Amino acid sequence: MKLQKTTEYSLRILIYMAKEREKIHTAKSILENLNISDKYLRRIMTQLTKFGFITSVQGKEGGYFFSRKLEDISIEQVIGAFEGLNKFSGCILGFDECSDENPCAFHSKWKDFRSNLLLFLQETNLSNIEVEEILKF
Asked: Would you say the C-alpha torsion 46, 48, 53, 54 has a positive or negative sign?
């Protein structure tokens, strides 16, 4: 599955922050640890704030912290906020008319896989992933 770069970085940022969930994370520390350009990082942080995943604190002791409990932030929500989930709902071969009544060659296998994938994305949240393992970028 190929996500857009902004979505990938958003997930990396949130996972990095989840490692120390109670901490206020500075843009500088995120930049140093995740190797994202400053301008791109700040744009993503603004979007993460707008979508309600994190909160921004201005000033000398400022930074970013989670707006919600980690249990309440699913991978599905993050992907959905940044690029939507349409790529997971359509025909794998790109046909407009693909259904149980008018299936493509992959329909039955893709339908089951798609259901399992969406369930995985819904059930996986920032509190139930192995943060230490995922941070090995």
From this structure: negative
Burial of residue 48 (CB within 10 Å: 0-12, 13-18, 19+) is buried
Instruction: Please provide the distance, in angstroms rounded to a whole number, between the alpha carbons at the two ends of the chain.
Output: 17
What is the rounded CA–CA span in Å between residue 18 and residue 68? 11
Confidence (pLDDT) at 73 = 97
Here the tokens at position 28 are 């500088």
Judge contact between 44 and 13, C-beta under 8 A.
yes
Q: What is the pLDDT of residues 119-133, one digit of tens each?
A: 999 999 999 886 555
**pLDDT higher than threshold 60 for residue 134:** no
Which domains are seen in the chain, by residue range?
A: 5-134 (1.10.10.10)
Q: How many CB atoms lie within 10 A of CB 40?
A: 13
Tell me, yes or no, if the pTM score tops 0.70. Answer: yes
The Cα 53–Cα 50 span in angstroms is 8
Q: What is the mean pLDDT of residues 62-75?
A: 95
Candidates 21, 17, 2; CA nearest to 134 is 17
